[in-house]
Amino acid sequence: MNAPLRIGILGAARIAAGFCQGVAPSSAVQVTAVASRSAERAAAFAQAQAVPRVLPDYEAVLGDPDIDAVYIPLSNDQHVPWALRALAAGKHVLCEKPMALSVDDVDRLQAASEAAGRTVLEAFPYRFQPQTLELLARVRGGQIGTLRQLSGEFGFTLRNDADYRLDPALGGGALWDVGVYPLSMVRALAGRLPASVQASATWGPGGADHALAAVLTWDDGLMATVQCRFDALVHRHLRIVGSEGALACGFHNHVGPGLDWIEVYRGYEGQREPVPQGNGFRLEAEALAALARGEPPHPHWPTWAETRDTTRLVQALLESARSGAVRRP
């Protein structure tokens, strides 16, 4: 039996607690240590999540020989600096989305990953869900004909006015936080960048986008719409329309009871077909562990090209929303 991938966590963020709970049943990965800027917070986190060790700081996590990989759930502006340090320390990296806030930084991470011989995975848990894999297989297998229209949306109510996600200097904004989910899925389905994009947004007092709506157009006639918000009832939907059929679902990070289906349309009436359930944190961590063991990459492993393209799309959409102009990503 293979030894589990030993993971250290940088920071005691709320999403890190969900990550610990998701991977706890896995025999392939094990969270072995956590560090935080607050020793008290790290200790409380470790006790609540049954993490065996609390280390004094992030550097101690990177320098620990008994840690194979690090999980980075820090604010968006801190992803690249700590991912680069982790790679330099010989660790594999599971980094919360967005991996980077610029294409240049994606390139830097790829170069560092290849130089270190270590893997970097951008944490989009939905990408490893059986639901997502089934969607991609059906579309790529031609089951709905030629792609014509894609639409994705994700929103919720952000109630904390002090949340870093409202600060553009820290990589905040609805598009970087939740819009990247449908945007990355649109890129995965289309397989390439659109020819042009245009967006409209509403802006908060600090300058971050609170809501954004975008239209993406390809030269062959494919079109997509993407919407994201910080001021609505939580919602997460995807619809894929082809020349001969359509698919719809919620493309959730964690598919449980009530979410484990895909709607298949051959006309006006759709039929729900069941898909397996799964915790996305566990699925993505186990995919990283398998690659770290030297196994072939997961067949739907997000590529550097996809990460680069999604980053380029976010930048182009924000530029369009600010200027009102059509942009070429």
Tell me what you see in this structure.
By secondary structure, the protein is an alpha/beta fold. It has two domains: 5-123, NAD(P)-binding Rossmann-like Domain (Rossmann fold), CATH 3.40.50; 126-323, 2-Layer Sandwich (Dihydrodipicolinate Reductase, domain 2), CATH 3.30.360.10. Helix content is 34%, strand content 28%. The protein starts with a strand and ends in a 6-residue tail after the last helix.
Terminal CA distance: 46 Å
Strand order of the largest sheet: 8-9-10-7-11-12-14-15
Average pLDDT rating = 97
Q: Report the portion of residues in β strands.
A: 25-35%
Helix count from the secondary structure assignment? 9
Series of secondary-structure elements, N-terminal to C-terminal: EHEHEHEHEHEHEHEEEEEEEEEHH
CATH architectural group of the largest domain: 2-Layer Sandwich
Uncertain stretches: none
Radius of gyration: 20 Å
As for the number of domains, it is 2
DSSP helix fraction? 25-40%
- The CATH superfamily of the largest domain is Dihydrodipicolinate Reductase, domain 2
Task: Please summarize the sheet with the most strands.
Answer: 8 strands, mixed
